[in-house]
Design goal:
By secondary structure, the chain is mostly helical. Among the domains are: 36 residues, no CATH class; 36 residues. The protein has a two-stranded antiparallel sheet. The longest helix has 39 residues. The model has no long low-confidence stretch (mean pLDDT 76).
């Protein structure tokens, strides 16, 4: 049988990635708050202040930030007009159940036919 997606010689389906190559290039900068020399993972353009890691923690990384796991979860609110949608979903479920029942019966008939053919042989 012919393979649909043959493996490439490199051992995978896409280009090989090196684990160290996706690291951002570091650029030298001067902290706007304390004047210390530091490195940042972006090229400073002078439009935004640059902070060393110590000043950044004090300035922006403080305790007033809410951790992402503390964010309230989205809860869907009921809306008017859901009755029609609810009726449509019930009708679809009934149709799907009927289709599954027919397919199950067909599968049972085929397995019975297979078993009777094996008994004749």
């Amino acid at each position: 049988m012919k393979k649909i997606f043959p493996k490439k010689q490199s051992g995978g389906y896409g280009p090989k990635k090196s684990f160290g190559s996706d690291r951002a290039a570091m650029h030298r900068a001067t902290c706007n708050k304390c004047g210390a020399s530091c490195e940042v993972p972006f090229k400073p353009n002078g439009k935004k202040p640059i902070y060393c890691s110590d000043c950044f923690r004090k300035e922006d990384g403080g305790a007033d930030r809410q951790p992402s796991y503390d964010k309230p979860r989205y809860v869907s609110t009921p809306r008017a007009g859901n009755d029609d949608i609810s009726k449509q979903l019930k009708a679809l479920n009934e149709k799907m159940d009927a289709i599954l029942s027919v397919l199950t019966d067909l599968g049972d008939e085929e397995s019975d036919d297979d078993a009777s053919e094996e008994g004749e042989a």
